[in-house]
Every structure is written in C-alpha cells, then in structure tokens.
## 1
Amino acid sequence: MEKEKYYIIMADIIGSGKHNAYELMRDFNDVINSINTENKERLLSPLTITLGDEFQGISSSIQDAIVLMIKIEEKIIHLQKNLKLRYVLYHGEIDTEINQNIAHGMLGKGLTNARYLLESLKKERKDRFIINIDSNPYLTEVLDLAFVGFQSIVDDWRPKDFEVVSPFLQLNNIKGDYKVVADKIGKDSSSVFRRKNSLQIHQYFSSRKLLINLTKSIDNNIVPISEEEMLEISCG
C-alpha cells in the first residue's frame, strides 16, 4: 500500500553568516511567526525554525505551499527585513504522525529528500526555488520555470524599494494605481508612477498569478516539453 504523501516546505537564509546573529534571528522569527499566525488553515504542521537559519513545515495542498512561499517573500517586504531565502517544495512520504503544533519529531523519506535538495541548492543553483513533485513532472517543471521569472523581479528589489513596493502589495493593486499608493506613503504621484514601472509591479502581479494558476493544472498525463521539441521551435 502506497504511503500518503505531503507537501513539505523547507528553506534557509542565504548568506546567514554575514548577518548579525541576534538581528538575523529576530527578523527571521518575526517573519515566520507572522506567517504561521495568518495562515493556519494552509498548514498541516506550522513553519518551524529548526537550525537557526532554516525552517520546515507541511502545507495543506500544493496551492497552499506556493501561496505560502509567495506570502513569505511579501512578508519580508512588508516588515522591511533584509532577508533572502532559498526554498524547497517536496512532495513526499512522512512515516510518523503529523505534528500539528510544531514541525519537529517527524520522520520519513520525504523529509530526508527535501533536506538533501536544500543542501544541493546551496551548492549548485542560483535559483532560490526548487520544486520536486515526482508524480507530476509537468507541474514540477512549469513551477520551476515560473519561479525563475518571479525571482528575477523580486531579487531586483532592494530594501530601499520596500516602502513603495509594500503598499502596492498590501492594496493588492493589480492595476498599479500609483496615485493611491502615492497618497498612502505621502510621495509625489509622478515619482511613484516612475517607480511602479521601474520596479515592474505589473509584471510581479502577473508572475504571482501565474504561479497560483499553475497549481490548478494538476494533470498527470501532461509531460514537459522535450529538448528536441524546444530545438525544433527555436529553429523554426
């Protein structure tokens, strides 16, 4: 009998050794505690800081897992924290009972493999997001690719930009109404208009929506495009 699989999220802080240890832990705790408080329905086991600069948790679904990673990125902006995380989302087995209070004391191949992927991500990849859903290679690949675009936008934002980016996100201002944001932060509207474009606010909302929409297309019969098919398209 096949064991039940769960959506495991793990992440760690990039370059944690370069930060002040006290400030790092304070900021990390602020972000994770806030996410747990606001997203209890999305978590089977809460995000739990395990090794000082890492956390793990179990989400309720693939969509909840993607939403949680996006929300963590946005929470860092809202709280104006100088943190950059790398994430692993792994769909795998957990042998022990799911701990609903803290993501400790659980064992299983899924957790072991997720840990291995996180360690490999530190050594081999510049991408901050890695998805592994063995039962659905199509969804794995398209989410990985979509996160490349998402990351390229977010990683261009600097802490000094968060003051402008945050109200756009808080207002869920998909249309990019810069005048509303300008009023909220007390800035000149023409200046905010220019920042909206340079910060790619519209592109960010599109990228975020794409990631969430992709989780709705869980069809195991779909396979990723092959390298041969890509070559044919490129040469066409």
## 2
Amino acid sequence: MNTQIIPVPFYEDMLVLIGDDNVPMVAMKPIVENMGLSWQGQHAKLNEKFNSVIKLILTTGADGKNYEMTCLPLRKLPAWLYSINPNKVAPELLDKITRYQNECDDVLWEYWAKEKPATGNLKIQLLAPREPLPETTGGMHLKIRDIIALQQQYSRIMHDIEKVDSPAIRAGLYVQLRFIADTIGHDVPDLDSFSFPKTAVTPLIAHI
C-alpha cells in the first residue's frame, strides 16, 4: 500500500492529508482539536455516522513506532463539517468553525491536486524542502510591533516542533518557520537538528 503524508497549513493551524492508495484521506483529530471541539465526542460521531468509510491508517513516526490515525475520505469531509451546528458551540469558537466549514475542504483539495503524482504512485513525504525559500522581505515594510510578533511566533514554532514526533506535523511547522525566518531575516537550522520529545507521547496520538 502506498501512503503519502501531506502537511497542510490552514491559517494558524496545521492539517494532515494522507494519500491512501491514491485516495485522499484526512486525519480527523487535528481538525477536531483545531476547531476547539472534543475529540472524544466527535470520534464517537464519526464512528456512528461514517462507519462505512472511516479508516484507521497506520503510519510510522520518526521514532520508528507505528501510529493509527483515524481518517475520513476527503470527499466526506464537508458532510462532517456541516454536521457541526455553529449555534450550539461556544461563542468564541463560532468564527473559527465557520471558517473551517467554508474553506477547509477547498484548501485540502487544492493541496491534494498539487501533490498527487500523475502516475498514481505516491511517495511518503516526511521533511520540508531544505532549499532556501523565495525572498519575502523585498518591498515589505514591517513595523516594530509586527517584527516582535513574528519573532515571538518564530520562537513558539521552534518549541512546537520539538514537542511532536509526527513527521508530517514537524514538516508542516518547519515550512511555517522557514517562511517567518525569511520574512524577518533570521537563520533557521535544518529540521534534522531539532530534538524529539523526551517522553513517550503514544497515549496522546496513538488513535488520531
């Protein structure tokens, strides 16, 4: 079976798209938690309403361990998204949930169309490109408060990379880090130089 892991940035969040034998699948736990919803409740709903199409996909983390990710076919994602009633969630989640419902599946389809090889043979994508990203500072005039905010975000992402051992999520975070680094003129180490969590995180992500 050919499996491709594609980290997909979505505003300030990171999604995980998986090519499973040439079929686009979405890792659901990152989406659920990004939206501020309870994974336990939504996992039960997924198993109840999408039992015939939901799938546990086994992936190998950078630590060499196997992890099962609860995935939904991308074509079914809108049905789940619109099963969330914005009027029944906390007010502070309303804007974000609406954004996911309106834009999330389009962004994922765009990434899938860009990453899917014409041959149908999928490769496991683990690390972000190491080549320098295009210069982004030309013509940009950042205010001091913007630079400070980007520096803080740069530091936060560096710490976030070392908190996870999922290759897809680490790669996606690294892409964001490189973009910010180019914007503010910072150097950034290779992804390989970042450490992994010192304690096992299997209980948190073994059933994504």
## 3
Amino acid sequence: MLHSFTGGREGRNPQGGLTIGPNGVLYGTTTSGGELTACSGYGCGTVFGLVPPASPGGEWRKAVLHSFTGGSDGANPAASLIIDTNGVLYGTAPNGGASTACAGYGCGTVFKLAPPPSQGGTWAETVLYSFTNENGDGAIPIAGLALSQDGALYGTTTQSGEIPGCHGYGCGTVFMLMPPPSPGGAWTETVLHRFKSTDGAYPEGVLVIGKNGLLYGTTTYGGTSMTCASSLRGCGTVFELRP
C-alpha cells in the first residue's frame, strides 16, 4: 500500500485512476475532502500527487496540489487526469463552475493545473471552460479528457445536448476545447455531437483518439436494444465520431 487516505483536508474517496508524471510521480483526484468549509462540510475534492521514495522501501510522500472550493473552480472530480510534455495536468469536475444552473450545484468545469516554477511552490489552477447547460453546450462532465497532438482537448458530458431528450436533461455530448492562439487567451469549446438516446446516452468513459482524428467512446445507456430494463431504454453503445 502506497497511501491510505484519512479524509479531512488531504482528501477522500479517490474514484478516478492515476496518471504517471516525470520521475514516477503519481497524480490523481479525490471526489471529496479538501477544504472542509465547502460542499456541506465534506469538502469538494482535491488533486493530489504521490512522490516515490528516494530509496527502495521508503515511504511515498503525498501532497495536495489543489483543493476545490465548489465555486468557479469546480467540485467533486471523479476522473483520471492527463499530463502534457510540460508537466501540466488537465481534468474535469462534474460540479461547480461559473454557472448557477444544474440544480444550483454548477454544471462542471474543465481545468488545468500548472506546476510551480520552483520545487515546493504552489500549483496554479486555471478553469479552461465552465459548462452552462445552455444552447446545448453540455453539463456534468464525469469522464476524463483526451489530448491530441495539436493540443486540443476532447471529452464528454453526461447531460445537456438535445433537449428535451433523456427526461429533459439531455443525453450528453462530445466536445472539443481548442487552445487559444496566444498564451492567456480563452479556450474555445465546440460541441461535436449531441446524443439522442437511440445513438447512445450518458457517456461516462474517456474517449480514444484514433488515426486521422477519429474519436471512439462508449455510452452507458441508449442504443437500439430494448432488452435492458431502464427508463432511458437501451443497453449502451460503442460509437465512432469522424472529423
């Protein structure tokens, strides 16, 4: 065992997987814990790093890189992170954000965490996009992200899209976030597909980028089968999206 979470400010309930960074550091998220004044006293989740021991058999050292507030920065991250060649971490939070929609909890965010310029410094969080649940832009991103060679981020949201599908919440979307042409600018979101239940509903898995920019993914519900007992109908799908 490398680490046992104790709750409180260090975080608890790590639902997503891990990402390996430079020098063998492990990065992950917890869905709750962190700053306990937020999210009804349970904390809104954290991003953490586990640094391997200097010598075999030693203890791994854990550090909280960011504690979510439940405000504009997001809340309750449940997916794995991805890391680029500069050591920057990217992830999703299904709740929080700038929007007041989605039952007042916010519709989720896509965020990045930049490493400090010197060892021991503070990681800097930047929200790349806040979902609004308006105009079909998406809401509640549970899955993690995929990073293309040109720096674009691809992901899914479990709700919004074609309203009033899936009980009026929308059946989910596939989206793309393009980086700004110059540093410090705004990232641009484009919805690539809005699910309609017959082609799938509630995508919760990470996308895979194939040759020629093809995207592959799964949806938990929806499809053409009627054999699964569900108010959404359908046993789920595997899908492909072509540019």
## 4
Amino acid sequence: MPAPAHRSAFPLTAILLAELPALTGGGRRLALKAVLLGAGRLLAVEDAEALRAHPGPVIFALNHGNALEALLVPAALMFLRGGRPVHFLADWMYLHAPLLGGLLRLGEPIPVFAKPALWRLGETYRRQRRRESVLAACLARLAAGNCLGIFPEGTRNPDPGKLLRGRGGLGEIVLQSTAPVVPVGLHYPAASRLGRIPSVGRLVLRAGDALTFHTERQAARHLPPKLPRLRRELARAVVDQVMQSLETLSGKSYHPQPQKRRAA
C-alpha cells in the first residue's frame, strides 16, 4: 500500500485555494470547502487522477460502511473533479434534514422514496413522489452527460470483512445506458483492529479500472422482451462483476448468494 503522503488529496491549502470552476454559486463552493475543512483530514485517496479522468457520463459504484460516507464521499468526488456534481442516490428523509440536507443537496442527489416517513404529512408527500421512477431519473442524468454515484449494497454495512450482495438496480441502469462503471473501494484501516467499520475514522478511497460491459449491453439488446428472467440474470451478472471489483478495492470478500429456485 502506498505511503499516506502519496494518497492524501485534501491538504488545507489545496482546499482553500481550489477554484472549483464547475460548481456554480459562491455559497455552494464555501459549503463544499467547509465539509472538507471539517473532515477532509479523515480522507485519503489512492490514485486521485483515476477519479478526475472521467468527465462523464460515468457511474461510480462504492461499498458503504457508515452514515458519514453519504456526506464525505460525494464531497470528495466533487472536489477532486473541480466541482462537477456526482448525483448520488439518497434517502429522501436525509435530504430534508436541517443543515445536513442542505449539505447533501450540494451534489444534486436523486431522492429514493422507499422508506416510510416518520410523520403523517411526510408520508403523504413520500407516496406522491414514490411514483417517480428512480431508474428513469438515473438514466436522464447519464443521458445529459452527468455522473451517478451508487452504493450497490443498498444500505450501510458495518461488517469489516464481507460485502453485502449487490442489488440488481445497478445492473439495469448499466444495461440501459452506455456509461462505464468505475468501482471505488472504501477502506477503513482501523476496521480490522476494531472488528467493525468505525462510525468516524480514517477512510481511504481506492479507484479501480473502468468497466464497460460492452458484451452484456449487446446481449441485452437482443433479449426477447417476453423473457424478463434472462434480463434479470444478465443484470445480476453485471452487479456481481462490479461487486467483485469492489472486493479487491475495499479489502472485503464478496460471496453472492445464489438465487432461490421457485418450486415447479
């Protein structure tokens, strides 16, 4: 593993002097810099140029260990990419939280309305917005030349040694788009000592090689529409390939559970 001096991408002077030309609005620049000034010392990046090299569209796929990542990782990617947003999928309730919601909205995330609201009025709002297609929103951002950020595990996973099974939604986004997938492993050096992912701790981002999925996309175009099972299997193969890349980058093992066969 490279020495920390070669990984760090967020020194104080670099944050203060960064122009972030792609991020409109002085207030948004200040907010992004404030996040990294407050917590940037926790972040290190191996091969930051690999994250800068993809202008878009591209899908960044990352493993997910704690709640703080939902704020720090999008901020880090935006900073490294000159302020260009990375549209992460995000729980809608977090986006409406005081202060935190404003910071999360810096990257113009795509809200996911799966979880019920904690209050009645909010539940009415959620049910109305739940009709909106997350898949369509993701594809629209990619078609416009923008970037997505996805945690394919679908939830926080505090296990220091194993990845959760990746969810199939990422596979369908890949099959319906042309954007490459760049896996980014999130690794906590303290996890092995603690026996869990820390709630707050030093975090290393490791970018992998872009995955293009030319073969899978070509196969998807020729699948008969009356055989959705074959498409689901193809999407599953895409997701498992992404997760296997994250296995190497995150230092966690990945053992996808086999699909349960339905009784005849």
